[in-house]
Design goal:
two-stranded antiparallel ribbon; alpha+beta; about 350 residues; about 65% helix; about 10% strand; 5-stranded mixed beta sheet
Length: about 350
């Protein structure tokens, strides 16, 4: 028996839109339009099964196109999974009513299976572009990190050693002519060498991606102790119970927060830096505040859309979270990182 696909689509999409209202899945109208298209595609595919007609082979192309758009908008696949769950919840009752009215030789279980298969097929195809986005972001982050290391080697360490060599040349020039001046140049050379050695050690520590402590808070405390200059007050507070994060997530969060601290210490010249690690019901937050020079965030990111700020944001997005950076010239900077704590098999990470 035939099914009125247009009427079925209208009823199903309306039910889906009503269920999406107020959901975190629905961020803007563009997303709503994408989800409506997917719901329409699913309903028509299932309706063809109720009518015993052939499937439309263009479905994967549409799912891949929508997936690419969502990846460019940096919408994490977990949002697609939430949308898929809501889609099943909205569409199943509508399709079940249509099944009963059509007299099609399908059981309710078979209908549910067909609906789930159609939804998951689109989720799987749509998730593939996000993998490409992650690889691109990872390569970009690695490139930025290598560029930073190259700059540090050239601008700080090589420069410091060059200054030391120059001071040693001056020492050699004055050592038999002016003992006091020779000693001054020797002392300056020694100071420059010590500074370069310290920077080399710090750069080596930065390359060590495994957290030096057993927990994220311990690792960050160790980093602050080893890098914060004398006279800079630092504090680290854990609010709530520290969640048991997967090793790879904890390591990425450590690198992200370390980058925020490094930016503050090198560029902002703060007298105080405060870190708050906040464990909420389904969210883990890290807030890094400094009272340094501050800067115009929009001007910096538009003029130079690479480097530390981009790395912080991209690392957060790769974890399925987000990072916001606020700053006022002369009044410090705040980096606020949100990581949604996942629930697996009833246990929190």
């Amino acid at each position: 028996m035939s099914v009125d696909s247009d009427r079925l689509v209208q009823a199903a999409v309306t039910a889906y839109r009503e269920l999406l209202i107020g959901s975190t899945v629905l961020s803007d109208e563009a997303v709503a339009g994408q989800l409506a298209l997917q719901a329409e595609s699913v309903v028509r595919a299932v309706a063809r099964q109720l009518s015993s007609t052939e499937d439309d082979e263009s479905v994967p192309d549409m799912s891949a196109r929508i997936g690419s758009e969502r990846a460019r908008s940096r919408i994490h696949p977990t949002q697609s999974l939430r949308a898929a769950s809501l889609m099943f919840e909205a569409l199943f009752p509508v399709l079940a009513d249509a099944l009963e009215a059509s007299g099609a030789p399908l059981s309710v279980v078979e209908l549910g299976t067909a609906l789930e298969r159609e939804i998951q097929q689109r989720v799987a195809v749509g998730a593939l572009p996000y993998v490409d986005y992650l690889l691109t972001s990872l390569l970009s982050s690695q490139h930025d990190e290598r560029s930073r290391i190259a700059r540090d080697l050239h601008d700080r360490i090589a420069h410091g050693m060059g200054v030391a060599l120059q001071q040693l040349d001056l020492f050699d020039h004055y050592r038999f002519r002016d003992h006091d001046r020779a000693e001054e140049h020797l002392a300056a050379a020694r100071t420059s060498i010590v500074s370069s050695v310290d920077m080399t050690r710090q750069l080596s520590a930065d390359l060590w991606v495994t957290m030096p402590g057993d927990t994220l808070s311990e690792a960050l405390a160790s980093y602050l102790d080893s890098t914060a200059p004398e006279g800079t007050r630092t504090s680290l507070e854990m609010l709530g119970t520290q969640p048991h994060l997967p090793d790879e997530v904890a390591a990425e969060l450590y690198l992200l927060i370390r980058e925020a601290l490094r930016n503050a210490l090198i560029h902002a010249h703060p007298t105080s830096i405060d870190i708050e690690l906040i464990a909420e019901a389904d969210l883990f937050r890290a807030v890094i505040r400094d009272n340094g020079d501050g800067f115009d965030v929009d001007a910096v990111t538009s003029a130079k859309p690479i480097g530390g700020l981009t790395s912080i944001r991209e690392r957060a997005e790769m974890l399925g979270g987000r990072a916001s950076i606020t700053s006022i010239p002369g009044a410090g900077t705040t980096v606020d990182v949100h990581y949604p704590v996942a629930t697996v098999a009833g246990q929190r990470w």
